[in-house]
Design brief:
Number of strands: 26
Distance between the termini: 73 Å
Strand order of the largest sheet: 20-19-21-22-18-23-24-25-26
Structural class: alpha+beta
Shape: elongated
Oligomer: single chain
Largest sheet: 9 strands, mixed
Helix content: 25-40%
């Protein structure tokens, strides 16, 4: 527990206690230690971190500086009796054991007749005796209050771009340094007249990192996190980012994408949806492939929504984005290493854990490394109906990409054996693309066959988007069946999926 004693210029004192190990100090609301009424305090003045049990104070390029025992410092580890001066306020810091008696939270010295130990004992007794529903309600309320506080703080830190974050037409905010900011609105990029100071942008990044429990340092200049509403945030610090601190905020859509909306947007056709429904019901393994910002995750979210509600689904992601509506969903999320490089939990670790937790379906947000081999093996050994996404520009390239990623596992496998694993594990590839007119469409739904001559992947397109031209700056075209018949049409008929099977009967009879 980090305890801060604040002595105001008029002699008033207060003691604050925090369970977290990073505190923001400044004049603006949203700072953990808010010195609103004090003079000489910048909006985001300093930061205090607990490192190896020692409090380290760091100035955030404030106007009037941060002093330790009358010496101006940029960054300093504090001794037990050190006093920190910020403007006309004196602060002292201490670290207490979690089991030690808690300090008073954000109020004057406790003068009540009830001791802290008695309050703690009463709280413990309540937790033991209160009904489960009442305890859960209190826990949810506490969590909600924490999120509301952070959201309020974030609004202050990101005030120059907050209107764009609230704008439903804006899908991404890109900060290329303090004074160069772009937004994506309806698929097009626009430079906006907004800017931060370097100190404001740095404080905003530190606030985001603090909330997600990650660090931004010279040794760790990059973080990938999410805001309370689920929006994705990527941060890169100088000198890796040559224009200054760079931030990309990919907004979380408040309205979930649905099959009906995909048809309305002409992203795919009703026949393609009927085919995908049959594939999901028959537990075919599906990979959604596409480039950056092609809508892979959104498409995976829609396809996974076709999974029956009575199945146990395990999702595995770096930063949670999937929004499955089924009741029995167990979401898993990776964990970065601590400052000593310990405690990291990777997607590969979680894939292995998930296999021991009786999944009906495993959904991996994105395959990026050696976890590809573990997932392929899972698909080949009874965990059918799994899904994931991968970066690739075509269905054949998606298979090659999976093959390459599987090699990152460090396990040496003959090329033919690996390709046989890939081809036998993956049944369907759904290719997403962002077209030159900024629309997103499913361009291919392809079936993966067995390895052919020369150890070449056999991929046949079942549906394809046929482009016909341009009208008023928009690409025209239509989705159509290619005439190819899925190899598992017999399974459709046996399962009673007559509507899906009927689409291909003409082609099956002609072959």
């Amino acid at each position: 527990m980090l305890v801060v004693r604040v002595e105001e210029p008029d002699g008033a004192e207060r003691t604050l206690s925090f369970e977290k190990t990073t505190l923001m100090i400044g004049r603006t609301e949203g700072n953990d230690v808010c010195l609103r009424s004090s003079k000489g305090v910048s909006r985001y003045h300093a930061r205090a971190d607990v490192e190896d049990g020692v409090v380290v104070i760091q100035d955030l390029d404030s106007t009037n500086g941060t002093y330790v025992n009358s010496d101006r410092v940029q960054r300093k580890a504090l001794a037990l009796d050190d006093l920190v001066m910020i403007g006309d306020v004196v602060l002292s810091f201490s670290v207490r054991d979690d089991e030690a008696e808690p300090a008073v939270q954000d109020q004057e010295e406790d003068t009540s007749s009830v001791s802290q130990s008695e309050l703690l004992a009463a709280e413990t007794a309540w937790k033991e005796e209160a009904p489960v529903s009442e305890r859960r309600s209190a826990e949810v309320s506490s969590k909600t209050s924490e999120i509301d506080f952070y959201w309020s703080a974030l609004r202050n830190f990101l005030s120059p771009v907050w209107d764009y974050i609230l704008d439903n037409d804006v899908t991404e905010v890109m900060i290329n340094g303090p004074s160069e900011i772009y937004v994506e609105r309806k698929g097009h990029l626009f430079k906006v007249e907004a800017y931060f100071t370097e100190a404001e942008l740095k404080a905003a990044v530190l606030n985001i990192a603090q909330y997600v429990g990650r660090r931004v340092t010279d040794e760790e200049p990059y973080i990938d996190a999410r805001l309370p509403d689920g929006s994705r945030v990527a941060v890169l610090m100088p000198p890796c980012s040559r224009k200054g601190i760079s931030v990309s905020i990919r907004k979380f859509s408040s309205e979930a994408l649905t099959l009906e909306k995909l048809i309305q947007f002409q992203s795919l056709s009703e026949e393609m949806i009927t085919f995908l429904k049959a594939a999901v019901e028959l537990r075919k393994n599906i990979v959604v492939s596409g480039g950056t910002s092609s809508g892979k995750t959104s498409l995976l979210n829609v396809v996974s929504g076709l999974i029956p509600v009575n199945e146990r689904i395990i999702t595995i992601e770096d930063a949670a984005e999937l929004q499955l509506k089924q009741e029995h969903v167990l979401p898993m999320e990776t964990r970065p290493p601590d400052k000593r490089g310990r405690g990291q939990i990777t997607i590969r670790d979680l894939v292995r854990v998930s296999l021991r937790m009786r999944p009906d379906r495993i959904i991996v947000g994105e395959i990026r490394g050696g976890e590809a081999l573990d997932l392929l093996q899972a698909m080949n050994t009874g965990h059918s109906g799994s899904m994931s996404t991968v970066h690739a520009s075509s269905p054949p390239q998606a298979l090659t990409r999976l093959e390459t990623l599987a090699l990152f596992s460090g396990i040496e496998i003959p090329v033919r054996a690996l390709r046989e694993q890939v081809s036998s594990a993956i049944d369907i590839i759904v290719q997403a693309a962002r077209l030159p007119d900024h629309t997103r469409k499913v361009t291919h739904i392809s079936e993966v066959g067995k390895i052919g001559e020369g150890d070449v992947y056999q991929v046949k397109d079942i549906f394809r988007f046929n482009r016909t031209g341009m009208e008023s700056g928009k690409i025209t075209g239509h989705h159509a069946w290619t005439g190819e018949v899925p190899g598992w049409i017999g399974e459709m008929e046996l399962a009673g999926l007559t509507e899906a099977a009927a689409m291909f009967c003409r082609g099956a009879n002609s072959k």
